[in-house]
Structure formats: structure tokens, C-alpha cells
Design goal:
The protein is of the alpha+beta class and about 475 residues long. It is built from 13 helices and 21 strands. A hairpin with an 8-residue loop joins β12 and β13 (about 270-275). The longest helix is centred in the C-terminal third of the chain and has 21 residues, at about 445-465. The protein starts with a strand and ends with a helix. The relative contact order is 0.19.
């Protein structure tokens, strides 16, 4: 097979590369390969069984068209301050302008026109004042909330648009290797249940998302693609009653707080806040169960959940942060017999595990029913755990009640952003014809910024096409 552009991964970065090329009138042949299924064929059996079935060969929540986007909370962060380090690579102004442009595309495909977290200046000032007093930084970012069920409809519309306009979508195919001649990438080798195929292309784009971060790290090592170890986030998913978060949910929808608690002063932050949301489980290829959260547009719970993530960097002599985080996750899964662990904050402070009977008596009822009550401190590293405890107590000064005895902590919450690929501002790697986008590249975190990277990649390829 010969194509002009082959894209590995049908997540937001890959999707918006193709989408922008179509919008600019490309004549190039574009193929996207995706390990998972199309939107209409993605099914999570937990909706029926109410427990994780550990689906094989992959988890339908994280794999398939739009990646985790279609089954996530579907929040679009509309500020260049949020979503990774892409502004360091291409400049803050370019990123913000492209966010505004990309947001309009989402609106065209059915996103809600309501933006959360605006027009509440006085209330925001009061929250910021409490954050400063607690030693935290508040990043008040406008949010467009798609909602889990609405996100699926939106990405289905994009999928049909790509197909109707000639983009080839190959589902059930996994990239096994790159085709390289000297320092030039000539395409990929992919496989499905029938065997290997070769796709030759002038431009190869790797956009495999967080799920593909460890695979991309291996590929970079094998083919001398310039990269450096990045940051890995280890943390927990915190769940409280909506009443505790009521004002923050109303004013900001998502309160992005950042701190550097003593004694270690690692960066700790909140991430992916879900008012009236649900805690969920995701499974990776190596049977690693990790916790996440989402919220529907219309169907709400009595709780709010939010991730608290502690950033870790490794360079010498150990430089494999993804492997480190996986080991932490494996140990936590071992204690939970393959399930997510949950523990009350008060029990952590008291140095005891949580028992199912105690959960049943609490005001905060878990929205992840098959989470196992236990002791997450027996698995999380001491440094991470101390950072998380001190950060939760600081957040309590901003949101009174956040550090109550009954606050629930689920583990493990892991974000694999590790492998930062070295590229120029046109997303060219040191291997000619090879580009890396989205969360797997180490430069973005989340739907909007990955989409922005795709838009910019599409423009670069169109400019090259027009110059010929």
C-alpha cells in the first residue's frame, strides 16, 4: 500500500490532522490505522454487568476511534496554560489562537456552546485568595464540557465526515514497526489477525496517546529517534460529596490547583474534575487496572471526583519513568486482587486500612462499586503519599471539607506522559518524514491540546503540498 500520509492512532491528534487537511482542500491520500474499533462498535460491558470484565485484547474505554476521548468526561480546556508543554515548543500565542480555532470545529460537530468557569470574577477572586493563603496556585481555565455520552455522538460525526471525504480508516490494525532507510521514515509495518501489511508513505505520524507511550518509547530506543525521559504522574482519584465542592463546581466547574508541598516540593496538581461524576476503571494491555473519572452531561451522581497527581522525573542512573509507574500500579492491583483500591482519608491518617463495612456507613458512597476497600499506602511510594496527603490538607483550606475523614481516595491513578520526543516547531523529528503528536509525544495532556497539535500538523502538511 502506498499513501501520502499514514497516521498511527485515531485519537484526537490523528483525527484533527486529517480533518484540518480536508478542510484546507488536500488532494493527498490519508490512511489512519487504529488498534481498536469504530465509535459505533465500541462497547464497555460494565454498563450491563456493573463490574470491569478486563476485556481482551484491549479495553474499549481507552482504545478505538477518538481514543479515550469518546468515553472520557469530554472536557475541552480553552486556555494555553492547561494541557501540557506545547507552548514551550511553538509559542503561547500560536497555541491560544489554535485553541480558539479548534474550539470552533468542535462546535461545528455538536459541542455544547456553554462555556463553564466564566463570568464569576468576584467568586473566583475569593477562591484564589484562599488558594494563595494555602500556598496553592489557582489556574482558572474556561471549560467546554462535552459530557461522556455527547462526546461519543460528536466523535461519531467526525468519523463519518472523514470517511465521507476519502480518509481511509483501518480498524483492528496495530503498528508493529517503522519502515526506515538510513535516517528517513518510509512508512510502517502493521498487523491484524490475518498477518502483516506494509504501508509506505511520505509522512508517518505517530499519535498513539497515553496508552501508546511505552510502545513509542521502545520504538524511539530501537530506531535512535531523539527523545528524553519526561514526567510521569502518580496519584489518586479523590471523591467527595457534591455539597463539599458546590461553590467551586458552580463558579469554575474545574478547579485546577497546583502546589509544591513540603518537605519534598514535588509538583502536585488537581486534574480532570467531574462534578456529579463517576469514578471509572481503565485497563491497559499488560493487565494494569488504573482509575479515572468522567461525568455525563445529563445523568449525575451525588459526588464530585478529581485526580490528585504527583509529578516524578527520573534521569540518572534510572531513566524509565513509565516502567516505574507501572510497577507502582501493579503493586496496587496486587493488593486489590486486580481491582482498584479505595480508602478513606481519615483511615490513612489513622494508619489503618478501610473495611467494606466502614464504606457502607459513610456519607460518601463510592461511585465505582467494584472498588476494593483496603490500604493504598501499602503500595504508593512514601514520597508520593506524603505529597498527596499534604496537598489534600492544603486544598481543604480552599474547599472546606475536602480533607474530611470520609473523603475517598482511589488508586492507582497514573498518567504516562513520559517519552518526550525531540522535534522542531513543525513537529519534525530527527528522522525525516516522521512526526509524533499528542499525549504519546510527551508534549500534550488532554483532548484540546492534542487536537491543537493535530490541526497544526495538518497545516504543515498542506503548506508543503501547496509549495509543490
Amino acid at each position: 500500500m502506498k499513501r501520502d500520509v499514514v497516521i498511527v492512532g485515531a485519537g484526537p491528534a490523528g483525527i484533527f490532522t486529517a480533518l484540518e487537511m480536508l478542510r484546507k482542500g488536500t488532494g493527498q491520500k490519508i490512511t489512519i490505522i487504529e488498534k481498536g474499533m469504530s465509535i459505533e462498535k465500541r462497547r464497555c460491558p460494565k454498563n450491563i454487568t456493573h463490574k470491569c470484565e478486563n476485556c481482551k485484547p484491549y479495553c474499549h474505554i481507552t482504545t478505538g476511534f477518538s481514543g479515550a476521548g469518546a468515553f472520557s468526561d469530554g472536557k475541552l480546556s480553552l486556555s494555553s496554560e492547561v494541557g501540557g508543554d506545547l507552548p514551550l515548543l511553538i509559542g503561547d500565542d500560536i497555541v491560544q489562537d489554535t485553541i480558539d480555532y479548534t474550539d470552533k470545529i468542535y462546535l461545528e460537530f455538536g459541542a455544547d456552546d456553554k462555556v463553564e468557569g466564566i463570568n464569576c470574577n468576584e467568586e473566583v477572586k475569593q477562591i484564589r485568595k484562599r488558594a494563595i493563603k494555602a500556598g496553592l496556585k489557582l489556574v482558572d481555565c474556561p471549560i467546554r464540557h462535552l459530557g461522556t455520552e455527547k462526546a461519543q455522538d460528536l466523535y461519531l460525526a467526525i468519523e463519518h465526515y472523514l470517511l465521507d471525504n476519502g480518509v481511509e480508516l483501518m480498524f483492528g490494525y496495530e503498528c508493529s514497526d517503522l519502515l526506515l532507510e538510513a535516517d528517513v521514515c518510509k512508512g510502517i509495518i502493521a498487523n491484524d489477525k490475518h498477518g502483516d501489511i506494509t504501508i509506505e508513505a511520505k509522512h508517518t505520524i505517530i499519535a498513539t496517546g497515553r496508552r501508546g507511550a511505552d510502545w513509542l518509547e521502545k520504538i524511539c530506543g530501537e530506531h535512535s529517534i531523539a527523545h528524553q525521559p519526561g514526567t510521569v504522574d502518580i496519584g489518586v482519584r479523590v471523591e467527595v460529596r457534591n455539597e463539599v465542592m458546590e461553590k467551586v463546581n458552580e463558579v469554575l466547574y474545574e478547579s485546577k490547583l497546583i502546589g509544591y508541598p513540603r518537605p519534598f516540593k514535588n509538583k502536585v496538581r488537581t486534574f480532570c474534575q467531574n462534578p456529579g461524576g463517576f469514578v471509572s476503571q481503565e485497563n491497559y494491555d499488560n493487565d494494569l487496572a488504573v482509575v479515572n473519572g468522567h461525568s455525563f452531561k445529563d445523568f449525575k451522581s451525588d459526588n464530585t471526583n478529581v485526580a490528585i497527581l504527583c509529578s516524578h522525573n527520573f534521569s540518572s542512573p534510572f531513566n524509565q519513568p513509565i516502567a516505574y509507574a507501572q510497577k507502582v500500579g501493579e503493586l496496587t492491583n496486587m493488593l486489590g486482587a486486580g481491582h482498584i483500591l479505595v480508602q478513606r482519608f481519615g483511615d490513612i491518617l489513622d494508619g489503618k486500612r478501610t473495611w467494606p463495612k466502614e464504606l457502607a456507613q459513610s456519607n460518601v458512597r463510592p461511585t465505582l462499586p467494584d472498588a476494593v476497600a483496603g490500604d493504598i499506602t501499602a503500595a504508593l511510594p512514601y514520597r508520593s503519599m506524603v505529597n498527596i496527603i499534604n496537598f489534600i490538607q492544603a486544598v481543604d483550606e480552599v474547599v472546606p471539607g475536602f480533607a474530611s475523614n470520609e473523603t475517598l481516595l482511589y488508586s492507582p491513578e497514573l498518567k504516562f506522559y513520559s517519552n518526550r520526543v525531540k522535534m522542531d516547531n513543525k513537529f519534525n523529528t530527527n528522522v525525516k518524514g516522521l512526526h509524533c503528536l499528542g499525549d504519546s509525544s510527551g508534549w500534550t495532556r488532554g483532548l484540546m491540546m492534542a487536537s491543537v497539535m493535530g490541526v497544526l500538523m495538518g497545516r504543515t502538511l498542506i503548506d508543503e503540498e501547496n509549495d509543490k
